[in-house]
Write a structure and sequence with these properties.
Blueprint: E1 18-20, E2 24-28, H1 34-42, H2 45-51, H3 63-79, E3 83-89, E4 95-102, E5 111-117, H4 126-141, E6 147-148, H5 156-161
Parallel strand pairs: 5-6
Antiparallel strand pairs: 1-2, 2-3, 3-4, 4-5
Length: 167
């Protein structure tokens, strides 16, 4: 019989509900965000394909499929198996991107952090702002010691080539 997988976060760990900076507000991504999230995604297709260069997402994404995806992210957050946050304008009226904290088996890392900002926000430096804010947030509020940021701090090819723990 195999050993159960280690939990992503300890059972008594208080998962941060929000992060607010001088530019953005993060909170759990939910199905209620579907219309604003879909707008952010579909207006950022070219950029998203550079964030995840090994796939075709969000090509062909429908509003219905986005609703399903958001429901999945919401359930994973509730189950504490991964954490997806929507990045909102400070007034909460506009989705500016998303942040994903996911378990990883990559040797030397205890969390995979991927994030993106709406394509129209790139010139303002929002992704650099998020990068700094997320690094600080992880260090101050999360139990992770070795975050991996594929496509940011580790090129995707190098990330994909990293050996996996237990394999």
């Amino acid at each position: 019989m195999s050993q159960p997988a280690m939990p992503f976060v300890p059972p008594d760990f208080p998962v941060p509900e929000t992060l607010t900076t001088d530019r953005v507000h993060l909170r759990m991504l939910t199905v209620h965000d579907v219309v604003k999230d879909y707008d952010a995604v579909m207006s950022s297709v070219a950029h998203l394909q550079t964030v995840w260069p090994h796939g075709h997402w969000p090509e062909g994404l429908t509003l219905e499929q986005n609703l399903i995806d958001l429901g999945w992210h919401q359930k994973e957050f509730q189950r504490r198996t991964s954490f997806a946050y929507t990045v909102l304008s400070l007034d909460g009226q506009r989705v500016l991107g998303c942040v994903y904290l996911m378990p990883t088996r990559k040797r030397g890392h205890d969390v995979e952090l991927v994030f993106w900002a709406r394509q129209s926000e790139l010139a303002s430096g929002l992704e650099a702002h998020l990068h700094t804010a997320l690094r600080d947030w992880l260090a101050a509020k999360w139990p992770f010691k070795a975050p991996g940021l594929p496509g940011r701090e580790v090129p995707w090819a190098a990330w994909n080539a990293l050996p996996e723990v237990g394999r």
